[in-house]
Every structure is written in structure tokens, then in C-alpha cells.
Design goal:
The structure is a single chain. The protein is an alpha/beta fold. It folds into two domains: 27-37 and 41-57 and 424-670, Alpha/Beta hydrolase fold, catalytic domain (Rossmann fold), CATH 3.40.50; 72-410, Rossmann fold (3-Layer(aba) Sandwich). Helices cover 35% and strands 18% of the residues. Keywords: Hydrolase.
Length: 677
């Protein structure tokens, strides 16, 4: 019997399984060759820039939400606000898929004292099986139904806390359908021949699948929520269920799904999200990463906060279950509750919103489960008890819906399989893009303004940092404010010490956009030295935000290379803010070019390596100031990334829906006259 479900929280993820040093990260870029490291750490003088900028951006979005709620004065105002958040949530999550046949079947039944457990498999999408346990009380009349959503347990629905609330509800007179999330329990998407995940259960599978999906215009929050909607569809096919009383509850990642489901599914009559509801702002301030499905596209740009997903259900009964010692900041839960309560008061139902704060750490522990039972019982009158009945846990294997414990035996289509199919379809359907149309499409996908500001950016001249073994003996460092509170760091290489603004030395210059760090690559990259050794024009570099001099050291210690670390953290927030991180980095180079033009550099050759080559490609498409482009180790195509099960590209360099518009081959075609060998 296995009950150790290894519920690994975000603090553990961000603190462990860290990747390599900066040198190893650069060396991983295919053919990139490094000189022997000189022992000097890469310059990193602005490691808090991205964190403080993010907090500023999220705080501004949060304030817009507060202002909208503060304007609510009447019943009609509250109703209009509820309608508004429903519309904005629908825009964030995108259109719902087609409701295809569930093809549900029961593969086994456990007969227990007072209830049964049915082992159910249904398809939320064609050939996309969902494994679930239906806890049914032995009753002669229809009973209230609850959909249970799991947190990040390795064994999904079989985890102790999730068995406990499902069984507790059944013993109190409720049916509970609890299903395995994607990438957990019996639903691993990247299982090897030994039925173990090749990327990591839970968080890692979610990120790996969800990040890749955005390339083809899919939305992992909707994928996850759709499983819950189809679970409700299945529950309501059962004659044992009273359709007048259907609720949803879950903890942690399941609390996320409960919250999102309140916003996207109108049939719920009650809800109890546990250990999730706080605010996007608190999470940003506290440097708390969250999975791809926990970060809905454009949510912050649309003025949404956690509480809005619950307000979408107003004035139906909801109890928010928080924890005093949770990493999901309880202060945010209190703030969210206060703002929801105002809407409920205006709607005449203040008694329908409650907040329960348990005294312990993160988890669906008994005090929070009992708060959920009590709330649901007051609504349904099924039981007058708020105490949890005695629970007798089942072995994981006893709850399997499949023979092996994994849906892989059914030969399903995986999330990656759907992504690959869609990428192939888009490649076949997408017409070649005319060069004159490409800049507009690139701006749209990168979500960049139509034009640069009229004034060039302000730049600071930093103190001399001494000789660093660059291709030229000296370098002057400039901190260019590409937008308020954001710095791009530019070095100007020089044969002599220079501590002033750039000299005017003609129209031509080279601008290098690094993979990871201008400082390190100037010292260690053989390819870069080969490009610069015979340069007859001034050489500048540009560390865009989030790398090099401003490479963050947040979300724990040395987490940059971790797939759930600080680089991911700023990238996924960029998606919520409607500003893809790659677009922000392209903006930094465009503004650096604008600054260079002040000093007469009107004809610039871009040199880019690795991630920097991708940035340079887009800049070359957008800027007439760029007269030439040399790139090295750039990804060949977004389609290739979308069609590789084990791709390695960070979220920072993936673009929502890019393959619906163009691919890198379109850029290369448009840049034929600029590309240099």
C-alpha cells in the first residue's frame, strides 16, 4: 500500500534540481565553443532589476482592478461587474473546445460500508482519457454531487488528503468525482517504458506541456479547466446526482482549478477553493513561481485578480479555505475575501461568501476539510454534521482505473501529441508571408508598440570595471533605460580607456546581442572572437533585460536555469501582462539602437548568438537601422520546437500563437539582403 504521495511544493521545486552554471548553459548551445574559462564570474551588477520592474507592473495592474471595484456602489453596478469579469475570463481562457463524446466507462467497483467507489475513465477530448474515482453514497434518492480537483500529488486522486475529502463527502451523503490531473496519478504524459515520468511528475509535466502549447495558440489553463468541465458533464449524466446541488473543491493546484472553474463554468451551485486564493500581486512580490496553468494568458492585462474568478460565480455560496502558514500568502486571501464580500453585499447575499483560515501549513488538512463540509451541508441540508467521519484509506493500486496504473496502456493522444498535430497542420496551412507584411505580424506577436518613443532613452555611464580580456583592451559600460526602471547594459569596446559618452566615429557600428552574458561571451566564445577580431568599426554589446548584468538571483538561490526558476517566473508573468518576455527583450535592443543613433550610428550590423540570435532576427525585421545580420546557434524554427517531445527552449523565448502567423523561415526570407555568413 502506497500513501506517500510526495506533495512537493513550489518552495522545494525552486530550491532544488538546479541546473548548471552560466558556462555550462552557454556550452549547451550546440556548436558554441568556449575558450578556457578565466575564473572571472560574469558581471551581474543589477540582479534585482527584473523583480522590481515586475512588481511595479503587477502593482499597476492590481491597482486598476482595485479602482474598478471601488467604483461599485449599487446592485446594478455589482451585476455589471460580474458580467464584466465573466467576459474577461472568457477572453483570457479562450474559446472552449468542442464537446465531443465522453465515451465513459466503469472499469471496476469497490464496495465499502455506506458507499462505493467506481473506477471511471472518460475522454475530455477525443482519445484523451481522464481517470477518476466516483465515490457514491448508498442512497435511494439523488444526492448532491461534487467534482474534486487534485493538487500536485504524484499519485493524484489516491493522495491521502484527496481520498480523505472524497470519502468524507461520500460518508456524509455526497457523490464525489475526483479525477487525476494531467501529468499526475494515472495520467503521465511523458511516461517511459517503466511508467515513470521522463520530465518529472506534476509541476514539471505541466510546464513542459503548457509552455510548448503556446506556440500553436493553445492555452494550458483552458486544457486543465476543460477536464473539470467534462468531469461535471459526466457527473450530471448519472441518475444518482441531484443537479440542483453540484459543487467543486480542491487544494493547492486543485484550489487553482476550483478557482478557475468558478470563472469558466456557470453550473456550479457551491465552491470551496483551498490553499490557493491570494492575489497575483502577493505572488509576484513574494517571488513565488506558479505552473503554466496557474498563470492565465493576459489575465493581468485584462484587469483580473484571483478574486474575480470567484466573483464570476456571485452570489452563489463560496468558502475560501486558506492557511495561516501557507506560502500562498494568507494576507492576499483576506484581501480577496474583503473585496468579494463587497460585491456579495451589493447583491444582497453577504452570507454566501466565507473565509476560513486553518492554523497550519499548506495542505487540505482536516480543519479545512471540515470547514468545507460545514459550508456544503448548510447549503444542501444533506447532513447536520461538520465533523469528518472516520476515514479508511485505500491502497493506490486499489483505486487504479487502468490495469497498469497508467493511461499509456490505452494508446492515447498526449498533450504533446495534440501540439505536434496542430503544429503540423499550421505548417501545412500557413502561406508564405510577404516581406512587407512581416514587420506588422512580428509586432503583433511580440505585442510591441507601433513606434518607438520620440525621445531616445536616457543612459548612465558606469564606472570603469577594469580589463576583462575582451577582444579589445578596454570597454565602457552604459546602462540604458529602455523603459522606466528597466536597464539594458551596453559595452563599447575600445583600444584605450574611455569614461564618457560614445565618440562619433562614422555611421557604421556592430551591436552584439549575447546568448547569456556579453561579459562572459566576449571572454570565452571563440565564435564571437572570430566575428570581432577584424572589426573596423566600433563594437557595442547589449545585455537585454533578464540576462547578463541584470540576470536575476530571485525565486530562491541560483534558480535561473531551473525550468521553474526566476527566468520562467518573469516569462510567465510577461504572458499574463500581455507582454511576452521575448518582445520585451527585442524592445531593449530597439531602444539601444535608438540610443546609438544619437551618436551617428545609423548603419548597424547585428551579431547574435543563441537566444540573442533569435532576438537579433526580430530586431533586424523591425529596424531599418540594421543593415546586416550575423547569427549563430539560433533555433531553426518554432515548428521544430513544437514538434519535439523533449524540446529545451525556455519559456522566455516562446511566443503565444506565433505559428498561426509565421515561422523563422519567413524572417530569414525577408532578411535575405541583410544576412551575412
Amino acid at each position: 500500500m502506497s500513501r506517500n504521495f510526495c506533495a512537493i511544493d513550489r518552495r522545494q521545486w525552486t530550491g532544488g534540481l538546479l541546473a548548471s552554471s552560466a558556462s555550462l548553459a552557454l556550452a549547451s548551445q550546440g556548436a558554441t565553443r568556449l575558450l578556457a574559462a578565466d575564473g572571472k564570474a560574469p558581471l551581474q551588477r543589477f540582479p534585482r532589476v527584473m523583480q522590481e520592474f515586475l512588481v511595479q507592473q503587477v502593482r499597476a495592474a492590481h491597482q486598476r482592478s482595485l479602482d474598478a471595484q471601488a467604483a461599485l456602489k449599487t446592485h446594478a453596478d455589482a451585476e455589471a461587474y460580474v458580467s464584466s469579469v465573466r467576459e474577461r475570463i472568457a477572453e483570457s481562457f479562450g474559446p472552449q473546445p468542442e464537446r465531443t463524446p465522453l465515451n465513459a466507462r466503469v472499469t471496476g467497483v469497490l464496495d465499502r460500508d455506506g458507499y462505493t467507489i467506481e473506477k471511471v475513465i472518460f475522454e475530455s477530448r477525443p482519445n484523451f482519457p481522464v481517470t477518476a474515482n466516483l465515490y457514491l453514497p448508498k442512497s435511494s434518492s439523488p444526492v448532491p454531487g461534487v467534482v474534486g480537483t487534485c493538487g500536485h500529488s504524484v499519485n493524484g486522486k489516491a493522495a491521502e488528503a484527496y481520498q480523505s475529502f472524497s470519502q468524507g463527502l461520500a460518508r456524509l451523503g455526497y457523490a464525489c468525482l475526483i479525477f487525476d490531473p494531467i501529468g499526475q496519478g494515472e495520467r503521465l504524459q511523458y511516461a517511459d517504458e517503466n511508467l515513470r515520468s521522463q520530465v518529472g511528475v506534476g509541476v514539471r509535466e505541466h510546464i513542459h506541456a503548457g509552455n510548448q502549447q503556446i506556440l500553436v495558440g493553445e492555452n494550458f489553463p483552458m486544457w486543465r479547466a476543460w477536464d473539470g468541465i467534462r468531469a461535471l458533464d459526466y457527473l450530471l449524466t448519472r441518475p444518482e446526482i441531484d443537479p440542483q446541488h453540484v459543487g467543486v473543491t480542491g487544494n493547492s493546484g486543485g484550489g487553482t482549478m476550483t478557482t478557475w472553474l468558478c470563472g469558466v463554468e456557470p453550473r456550479w451551485t457551491m465552491a470551496a477553493p483551498a490553499c490557493f486564493v491570494t492575489t497575483f500581486l502577493r505572488n509576484a512580490e513574494n517571488e513565488l513561481p506558479a505552473d503554466t496553468e496557474q498563470c492565465p494568458l493576459n489575465a493581468l492585462a485584462l484587469g483580473l485578480e484571483h478574486e474575480d474568478f470567484l466573483i464570476a460565480m456571485a452570489p452563489k455560496p463560496i468558502v475560501i479555505l486558506a492557511k495561516e502558514r501557507d506560502f500562498f500568502d494568507v494576507r492576499g486571501a483576506e484581501e480577496a475575501y474583503g473585496r468579494i464580500r463587497k460585491v456579495y453585499e451589493l447583491l444582497g447575499k453577504p452570507e454566501n461568501i466565507r473565509l476560513h483560515i486553518g492554523p497550519t501549513d499548506h495542505g487540505y488538512s482536516i480543519e479545512n476539510r471540515e470547514a468545507m463540509y460545514g459550508c456544503f451541508n448548510q447549503i444542501t441540508q444533506v447532513s447536520d454534521s461538520s465533523r469528518e467521519p472516520e476515514i479508511k484509506l485505500e491502497a493506490d493500486e486499489a483505486l487504479y482505473c487502468t490495469e497498469s496504473g497508467q493511461v499509456g496502456e490505452l494508446k492515447p493522444t498526449t498533450v504533446f501529441g495534440f501540439t505536434r498535430q496542430r503544429a503540423s497542420q499550421l505548417a501545412a496551412e500557413r502561406a508564405a508571408v510577404a516581406p512587407e507584411q512581416l514587420p506588422g505580424l512580428v509586432r503583433e506577436v511580440l505585442q510591441l508598440p507601433a513606434a518607438l518613443p520620440a525621445s531616445p532613452p536616457h543612459a548612465r555611464i558606469l564606472r570603469d570595471f577594469g580589463k576583462r580580456d575582451y577582444p579589445q583592451p578596454y570597454a565602457t559600460a552604459y546602462a540604458i533605460e529602455t523603459e522606466p526602471n528597466v536597464l539594458a547594459l551596453s559595452y563599447l569596446l575600445s583600444p584605450e580607456r574611455h569614461l564618457a559618452r560614445p565618440r562619433r566615429q562614422g555611421k557604421k557600428a556592430i551591436l552584439y546581442v549575447p546568448h547569456r552574458s556579453s561579459d562572459q561571451e566576449l571572454r570565452e566564445s571563440l565564435w564571437l572572437r572570430e566575428q570581432l577580431e577584424d572589426a573596423e568599426v566600433p563594437v557595442f554589446t547589449c545585455d537585454v533585460r533578464g540576462i547578463g548584468e541584470s540576470l536575476p538571483n530571485t525565486c530562491g538561490t541560483n534558480t535561473f536555469d531551473d525550468s521553474y526558476g526566476c527566468d520562467y517566473f518573469y516569462a510567465v508573468h510577461g504572458l499574463m501582462l500581455g507582454r511576452p518576455y521575448l518582445g520585451q527583450k527585442v524592445w531593449d535592443v530597439l531602444r539601444t539602437l535608438q540610443w546609438m543613433e544619437v551618436y551617428g550610428y545609423e548603419e548597424v550590423e547585428l551579431v547574435g548568438q543563441g537566444w540573442g540570435a533569435l532576438i537579433a532576427t526580430f530586431v533586424a525585421v523591425l529596424s531599418e537601422q540594421v543593415q546586416g545580420l550575423r547569427i549563430h546557434d539560433r533555433p531553426p524554427a518554432f515548428t521544430k520546437i513544437a514538434m519535439e517531445e523533449h524540446y529545451e527552449m525556455p519559456l522566455a523565448y516562446l511566443l503565444p500563437g506565433v505559428l498561426e502567423s509565421f515561422d523563422l523561415s519567413d524572417c530569414d526570407h525577408a532578411l535575405r539582403s541583410k544576412l551575412r555568413s
